[in-house]
Amino acid sequence: MSTEETSRFVRLRVELVLEVQDDDAVTKAALRRLAQDSEVPEAERAQAESAVTEDTAEALAYLVDPFDLVGEVPGVELQQASWSSERIDYDPDSPEWDLDGEDGDGDEEEGGIG
């Protein structure tokens, strides 16, 4: 495919598994960030504070921002992002968690730490 025919858009998929060792610290960090975020309307702020207080996974989703991952990368501009978090059962020895394994697409370039 020539350069003119190649799309300029790239989908970067990242999957992280985090071990939360201190729920309270994560919740407090999310609440601090919410308090400093002047763009959150008051009606949404109360709802967000409730969500991050009740669920550490929600607190993490509030703290992790895809723009932070690529905001300083030269030559790119984030066009769209979505992310979520959930509590999971994790077994690092299970084949399900093999990050080096193929996911069936086969046409993606893979890289990472692990």
Please explain how this structure is put together.
The protein has 4 helices and no strands. By secondary structure, the chain is mostly helical. The protein has a domain at 23-89. Helix 1 runs antiparallel to helix 2 (42-54), helix 1 (23-36) crosses helix 3 and helix 2 (42-54) packs across helix 3 (56-63). The chain is flat and about 50 Å long.
Would you kindly provide a brief summary of this structure?
By secondary structure, the protein is mainly α. Helix content is 35%, strand content 0%.
Low-confidence stretches: 103-114
Shape: flat
State the total count of DSSP E strands.
0
Number of helices: 4
Structural class: mainly alpha
Helix content: 25-40%
